[in-house]
Input
Amino acid sequence: MTKAALRKIYKEKRKEISTKDIEIWAHLILINFQKLDLPFINCVHTYLAMQNQNEVDTENITRYLAFKNPGLKIVVPKINLDKAEMQHYIFNDDVEMASNSFGIVEPVKSEKVCADEIDMVITPLLAFDNAGNRVGYGKGFYDKFFEQCNNNVIRIGLSFFNAEEIIDDINQYDMPLHYCVTPHTVYTF
Output
């Protein structure tokens, strides 16, 4: 199936998830995430979930990572629409946040972090396949970002759903995940 077809299907599937299922599945994702054998992480980049899109919330996962990795820098994206790219900023309780034109909450002002300083990226997705290829929202922000990261960066997806067999229209710019964590299992690629 193509990315466009999967994007449409999974946006609809997400709309159908009940609030109760989201809560239960998020706890199961955290439990499965804790099973990953990860190295010490100095800097993690994470998306902030869009509740209106029923994305997997990353807050409990970043809390877990901060507990396991003392001194962890948590970084969130800020979209630069003019350049069609993301910039990366420190995120903590003191950072003022505001919604951008897509309704994504971003830092207003914070310390900027270079992509090559990031050890792990928790990346949003709508769907993924058995090879670790992901379907995002179609703007290419994360694939461009992954190219800027160091070669050892760990790319992790979170999904309420299991893998598709294959995504038909993968191209040379698509960067596969290393792991995808679902309520039911951890996929390793």
In short: The radius of gyration is 16 Å. The chain has one domain: 3-188. Residues 3-188 form a domain with the Rossmann fold fold (CATH 3.40.50.10420). Residues 48 and 58 are 7 Å apart (CA to CA).
